[in-house]
Amino acid sequence: MNNDTIKLLNLEGINVDLTKSDIIKDANTLYCNIVLTKLDEICPECGSISYSLKDYQSKKITHSISTAFPCILKYKARRYICKDCGKIFYERNPFSLPDEKTSTMTRFLVINSLRSHTSTFSSVAKQYNLTPMTVMNIFDSWVDCKRKTFPSIICIDEIYTNKLSNSSKYAAVLLDFRTREIVEIYHSRHKAYLANRFTIIPEEERLGVRAVIIDMWDSYKELTHRYFKNSIVAVDSFHIINHLNKYLDKIRLKVMKRYLKSNVNRFIDHEMYYYMLKKFHYFFTKNYEDIYDGEIRIYKINAKWKKDEILKYLLSIDDDLKYGYELKEKYREFNLTAEYETCDEELTKLIDKFCNSHLEEYREFGKMIRRWKDEIKNSFIRVELRINNKENK
What is the pTM of this model? Predict the structure, then answer.
C-alpha cells in the first residue's frame, strides 16, 4: 500500500505497516487489508505495562469516505493478557471508537452531511454506502436533542419502517393529545426497547401522565401500567372500527366467492351478485354518509343507481351479509353516541351479540372487544375532546 492510497483513505498518522498492507477490489467493494504496527499498551484494569500476546481477532470497519463504492478496513486486532491481573484486552483501535463498526472519519462525514437542510437519513446513507438505520444511530449518538416533556395525555401510534430497518417493522410515535405534536419517536415498538426508553424518563414526569391512548397492542398496555402508574389506558376507537370492518369484509368475500362463474351455471343473477359485491365492496366498510350522493354508474347493466338503491341490492343478496352489516352499523352508532358514564350496559349487550353470533368472524371480534372492554370504555372519557388518536365516524 503506497502513500497516495494512505492519503486517499485518510489513514495518515495511523500506525499502519505499509509493507504488509494491501487493497483488493471485489465486485463493488474495496477491501483494505491492514496490518498494524505494534504499540506499547497499558492494562485498562490495573494500569500495568506487563502483558503478553494472547491471540488475534479479525475485525471489519466500514470506512466509507469515498462515495463511489463501499470501503471496508480489515485487520487482525491483537489481544493481550495482563500478567498482573489477568485482564484480557485489545490493542488500541486507531479507526473507530470501542465496539463501533463504523470508522470515526465516516461518522464525522455523516454528521457534517446531515447539517444541510435538504439532507435526509436515506440520502446520506446512500451517499456513504450505509444503511439508513446506521445513519440514524450515528445521529442519535452524536447529537443531543433536548427531549420534550411528556404531556398529561399521550397518544401512542406507529409507522411502518421496514424499509429503514430489519430489526423492527414499526416505529412507535408518541403524540401530545391536545396539540397533536410529536413528543418522541422510538425506532421500535418492541416491549424491551420501549421499556428501556421509558426507564430513562424521570419518575415524577411519568407519574404526571394521566391517560395513554393506544391501539390493541398488548405491550403498550403492559408498559403503561408499569411506567405510567397514575394513568388510565384507552383504546383508540379508530382501531376498533378498523378491525370490525376487516371482519365484515371477510364475510363479504366469503359470500362473494359463492357466486364465482366457475361455481355456478352462469345464472345471470349470480354473475350480477358477484359483480356488485366486488365493485361496491366499499359500501360495507366506508361510512355511508361519506359515499357519493349522486348517481353511480353500473356498467354491467348500463344503468345509474343512487347509493341507497345500491346498498338495498347488496343487502338483499345474502342474509348473513345483511345481518353482518346491520350489526356493524349498531356498533358504529354506539361508537358515535355513547358516553362514558352510561356506556357500560350497551357495550356489554353489543359484546354479547358478537360473541354469540352464528358467524365465526364476529365471534372472534366479540372475544377481542371483551378482552379490551375497560380500555374501550375509557375511550369515551372526554377531556375537552374524546380521548382518541383520530376522529372517528
Answer: 0.63
